[in-house]
Sequence to fold (306 residues):
Amino acid sequence: MTVPAPALVRRSAGRARQRAAAAYLIPFFILFTLVMVAPIGYALWTSLFKEESSGLGFGGAESVFVGLGNYADALGDTALRASFLNVAAYVTVYIPLMTCTALLLALLLDSAVARAKRLFQLALFLPYTVPTVIAAIIWVYLYSPSLSPVMDWFGAAGVSVDFFSASLAVPSVVNIVTWHYVGYNMVILYAALQAIPRETLEAATMDGAGAIRTALRIKVPHLRSALVLSLLFTCVGAIQLFNEPYMLTTQSEAINRDWSPVMYVHKAAFVDHQPGLASAAAILIALLAGVLSYAVTKLGNRWKAA
Fold:
């Protein structure tokens, strides 16, 4: 039985599309496997072993299978639990401050009275283009009493502030991260504001709604999806906090080398030379980040549906 010519053409076209799709997807899956899947698999494998020295410590170290022993050690380590508490205190201050500041700036830029919007967007976004390590170094300089002109101004005003003290450790880190990322979150919210139909805003104005009432009753409800996205990025970034507190360890005794969970992993791997413990802690951090992402997404979906 001969296949009609149109059917042959359709089959050939379908196979050509499949080959084209495979040509685009195969490089992605290769890179995804090398960059994501393979490191995760290696971390899982490493977390099952512990480095132990043979004999009286004079022999070379050997890897000993301990199963879930490294996970038990990580969960039982007070330093790791303290690092999670530090991040919890950091998030308690950082998320409201970041969200409110980014939202306020986005609303101000979107207001009718704003001038030079492009200039202010660029100025507010510029800190995000600075690498986090460089930003942290800049703020360490500004926090240092013997170097910073800002501290000189505080001294001239009779105000004594130690940004490296234990009481100001969390606010010091929050200030650096907020300065660096507020412009990024502002851009997300400002872009969402541009999607609001202008007719809706004009109708509110014609009904006598002022700028504040329009912002609270119309603009903010339309930003629910963008706010959830910003909150999701912020939560995941908080779990990965490393550069800012790590740079502050050079001047602050209150911020130690395992102040945050990722700093704990770095210390376990490169200072204490315990790759198994570091891998187990990293897996636990990844699981926590996944749980938080799921929780934020679910709460956000409920909020958007309300």
In short: The chain has a mean pLDDT of 85. The first helix runs from residue 5 to 46. The first strand starts at residue 49 and ends at 53. The CA atoms of residues 125 and 278 lie 35 Å apart.
